Amino acid sequence: MARCTAPVRGHYSAAAAAACPACGSRYGRYSSYNSYSGYPSNTSQSYSSPVAGGGRSIGSSRPRWSRASSTLSYTPVQVQSLTSIRTAIEAKAAERPDLRDVFLCHAWDDRQGAAKQLHDLLEEAGVKVWFSEKDLGLGVPMMRAIDKGLAASRIGLVLVTPALLARLPRESVADKELSALLAGNRLVPIVHNTTYAALRNVSPLLASRSGLDTAEDSMATIAAKVAELVTI
Q1: 3-state secondary structure 167-198
Q2: Is 67-230 a domain of CATH 3.40.50.10140?
Q3: Is residue 23 a contact partner of residue 16, using CB atoms and an 8 Å limit?
Q4: What are the extents of the domains in the chain?
Q5: What's the mean pLDDT in 126-143?
Q6: CA distance 154 to 102
Q7: How far apart are CA 101 and CA 183, in angstroms?
Q8: Average pLDDT over residues 15-21
Q9: Residue 109: what are its φ and ψ, rounded to 5°?
Q10: Where does residue 1 rank: exposed (0-12), middle (13-18), buried (19+ CB within 10 A)?
Q11: How many CA atoms lie less than 13 Å away from 187 in the CB half-sphere?
Q12: Which residue, 158, 155, 205, 144, is CA-closest to 184?
């Protein structure tokens, strides 16, 4: 009687399963190994695979709000961190369908650079954005306008850049925006040209909120993910 080789060699691939004298006829040369190994074949679940040339593993997941036709790929960490944000969006949408999608918090120095780039990409994706360069009119008191913008938006995005990190230690407008958004669990950090480690040194509370990072995704991909997140 043929003896299964899994206890000794393991069935770590379809080829290994097919080569087993006991299991080869069951799995076949080209059969999928997902069900045998315990990894789900459903794309709504996460999986991991080695990265060529390195020892770090990556994974992908499909969040419940992502369309079946979507080509966007999320990491399990992104799905986990964004799920509570999505729940807040759905609650806000039910209460106030007139609200804007997002409030964009950024450092003043980024208003014509990375913040404007993100704003433009979001609007191209159909996201309604409160952005100081567009919505803060001449002669309008800044703090009052920001209060109104926060109240009129479902969630906040904070663009974490070196310029923002330089300003956070000081009391500033950005500090007020972040406090309000953190209190309501409605904040998605977007890290750009810096790291979460650098953010942790300045604001451990903000760094505790996982978000999106341009080191992992392009700014255009991040805008597309935000658009999926806020679409009801």
Answers
A1: HCCCCCHHHHHHHHHHHCCCEEEEECCCCHHH
A2: yes
A3: no
A4: 6-59, 67-230
A5: 77
A6: 6
A7: 18
A8: 52
A9: -65, -20
A10: exposed
A11: 26
A12: 155
What tokens appear for 62 in the block? 């499909």
Query: How many CA atoms lie less than 13 Å away from 115 in the CB half-sphere?
Result: 24
Amino acid symbol at 154: R
Q: Is the pLDDT of residue 64 over 80?
A: yes
Partner residues linked to 104 by β-bridges: 157
Cβ contact 181:106 at 8 Å: no
2 pLDDT band (50/70/90 cuts)? low
Distance CA 4, CA 169 (A): 62
The neighbour count for residue 189, using CB atoms within 10 Å, is: 25
Model pLDDT for residues 184-224, shown as the tens digit of each residue: 778 899 999 999 999 999 888 888 888 999 999 999 999 99
**What CA–CA distances, in Å, run from 223 to 122, 129, 202?**
5, 11, 25
Contacts of 43 (CB under 8 A, 6+ apart): 60, 62
Residues 62 and 205: beta-carbon distance below 8 Å: no
The predicted structure's pLDDT at residue 104: 93
